[in-house]
């Protein structure tokens, strides 16, 4: 029998645990591992495998990926059965069962599930002696049967990454008001830090970090830059990210963004497009900018890019959506979702006022130090 562990972090059933081709949840789990290790309580991570090397964590248990039957008739039957049973995806039940087997072997005191309420319900029933925490990273919905079981099981502790998301989960799942705890994402303020030397005189660089997807609204930023380019050329633009984490796949939306970027270049504005960057290269890319824009048109629950911009000592300009206002506080500037003239006005005033940019950058860095991964770890596992 394996020795008991204190905490097991169960990755989302759709995500992997790599620094190059995984999503934000994997980043959060990796940072929790590091914070917990510093406190002498390294958790187990349970995940499906991914392409490339995983994060360098030796307490890792990999679940066999669900391949499904080759016969198309059997695949149709499985999809129909999934719809009847309420599981969100084909393969999710297989994942939950394998996780339950690992939990039975390792006997952790606490299991933290991530954006998989169905898996949390399954683990609660399979291992009633284990404390189950479900950490919502966004408004993850589930079928009515699972929702009722989730709400009816008082043994599941519900945590969300922001106050905004906590209230949305309470309303959607019909939980008691103010019953969902909050564990904001954190930021590594040593890795994400301001430039070490004075930057050479040059036009301020406006930056974007994120997927080139409709919900992240890079088109809103580029259109705002085109708006400004009608009357000025004293700025540059850098876009970090691609349509997905890893190989590039062009979409109608990303092609439209490329057209806008070509227009901006033709207008005389310097544009840098890095594509997707490995996690380790993001801090340096941020330090190459002066203003970080997070123009999301969806309700960002707790955007890592906001916290990383603050920690880098950048002026953060963000759409007033989701949990972003509670992260930014007085350390940045908010603008209305999808409002191109408003964003162009905010950026233009910042370009004209270097003293304000400097003051906001100092406030941003100070604000970021309030969001540590150590605090996130303690709140997720139950130490408010």
Question: Key features?
Answer:
384 residues, alpha/beta, Rossmann fold, 2 domains, seven-stranded parallel beta sheet, six-stranded parallel beta sheet, 13 strands, globular
- Indicate how many domains the architecture comprises: 2
C-alpha geometry: globular
Average pLDDT, rounded to a whole number, is 93
Please identify which CATH superfamily of the largest domain we are dealing with. Glycogen Phosphorylase B
Note down, in words, how this protein is organized.
By secondary structure, this protein is an alpha/beta fold. The strands form two sheets. A seven-stranded parallel beta sheet has the order 3-2-1-4-5-6-7, sandwiched between helices.
Reconstruct the topology from this structure.
Elements: E1 7-10, H1 24-38, E2 44-47, E3 60-62, H2 72-85, H3 92-106, E4 110-114, H4 117-126, E5 131-136, H5 144-152, E6 156-160, H6 163-173, E7 181-182, E8 205-209, H7 218-229, E9 236-240, H8 252-266, E10 270-275, H9 282-287, E11 291-294, H10 304-311, E12 315-319, H11 324-328, E13 332-335, H12 340-351, H13 354-368, H14 373-381
Parallel strand pairs: 1-2, 1-4, 2-3, 4-5, 5-6, 6-7, 8-9, 8-11, 9-10, 11-12, 12-13
Helix pairs in contact: 1-14, 3-4, 4-5, 7-8, 7-12, 10-13
Question: How is this structure best summarized?
Answer:
This protein has 384 residues and is of the alpha/beta class.
